[in-house]
Amino acid sequence: MSLFVKEKCLQGPRNRAPRGVSCMLSVRRAVSSMICRRERRWCRLSLFVLGLACLLGKTPANASDSLTLYMYYLPHRLTEDSGRQYDRFLEVLFDRTGLAIERKSAPLLRASNLFRQDQQSCIFPSNIRALKLDTVASRFGTSDTVDIVSLRLYTAKRQATGAALADFRPERVGYIRGSGAVHFLGENSDQYVPIASEEQLIRMLELDRIDAFLGHHPDTALALEDLDRPDALHVSPVAPDTLRFPITFVCHDSAVSRAFLKTVNSEIARMHASGVTRDIFGKHAEFEQPDEHTEEVPLTE
User: Fold this and answer.
1) DSSP code per residue over the chain
2) Structural domains in the chain?
C-alpha cells in the first residue's frame, strides 16, 4: 500500500482539525452506534486502541492527510476540471503514484499566501524564487522540473527589429495581475498595468488601451488558440533574452513532504522519459534539457 493511501478510519474531514482531533471525533461517533450499544465492552476497547493511534498520529494515512497542495488557478492550464495541461499532468501523476493529498486551487496571490501560512503544505506550479523564499531555501523542498514557462512581450504590430520594453511608456504596458516576473524588469515595473486575464490583455491591446503586455508562455499562446486567433499578436523575447523559469512543486520541509517529493520526482522522471509530459503539454511546451542552466527569476508573487 502506498505511503499516502488514505485509510477509512484514520482520515480527517476536508477542513482539518488539529492533529488527532478529527480522527478522535470519528472514533467517538462509534460509541453512539447500534453495534456499540450492543457490545459496550468491545466498543470501549476499540475506542481506546483507535484513539491511541489517532493521538500518536504516525500512520501513513494520517501522514497523507497532514499535507495540502495549493495550486495556482490558471484559466488555460489548471482549473481542476479542464482535463488538459497541468490538470491532466496532476491526474496522471497521482493516478500512477497512488498519492492522496488534499488539493485547493486559488488565484495567484491568494494561493501563495495560503501556502506561506500552512506549514504542512506544498504549492504548484511554482519555483522557490517565485515565492521569494530563496534566502531561506533550506526550509523548503522542491521537486524536479516539470516544464518551463517563459516571459515574453506581446504587441499588436510587428516591429522591424522586434519589440522591446524600452519602446513603450510603462503605463501603457500590461501584465497578469499577481505575476511577480515583471518586478524583475527594472524600476519602471511598478507602473505597469495589472490585468486579470490573458483574454482581457489581448482585448485591451486590440482596443489600443495598452501598447504591449508581458505574458507567460505557453499560457498566452493557449489563450490565443482558445480564442481561435493563434496568430493575432506578435511576440518578442524580453531583452536581453527570453526569461525562462523551471516549474516545480515547492513544499515546506518535513518528513512527509520529503517522502512526497521523492515519490513525485520518480514519476516525473518516468513521464519525461516516456514522452508523456510532452504529449500532455503539447506543441507549445518547453522542457529543461540535460545540463541546461535555467535562470530562476520570480514568476508569481
Assistant:
1) --TTPPPSTT---SSPPSTTHHHHHHHHHHHTSHHHHH-HHHHHHHHHHHHHHHHH--SHHHHHHT-EEEEE-BTTTB-SSS-SHHHHHHHHHHHHH----EEEEE-HHHHHHHHHH-SSEEEEEE-TTTTT-GGGGGGEEE----EEEEEEEEESS--TT---GGGS-GGGEEEETTB-GGGGG-GGGGGSEEES-HHHHHHHHHTTS-SEEEEEETHHHHHHHHTT-TTSSEEEEPTTS-EEEEEEEEEE-SHHHHHHHHHHHHHHHHHHHHTHHHHHH-TT---PPTT--------B-
2) 1-65 (no CATH), 66-147+248-281 (3.40.190.10), 148-243 (3.40.190.10)
What is the tens place of the pLDDT at every residue in 82-137?
999 999 999 999 999 999 899 999 998 899 999 999 999 999 999 787 677 766 77
**pLDDT digit string (tens) for 23-63?**
444 444 444 444 444 455 555 555 454 454 444 444 344 44
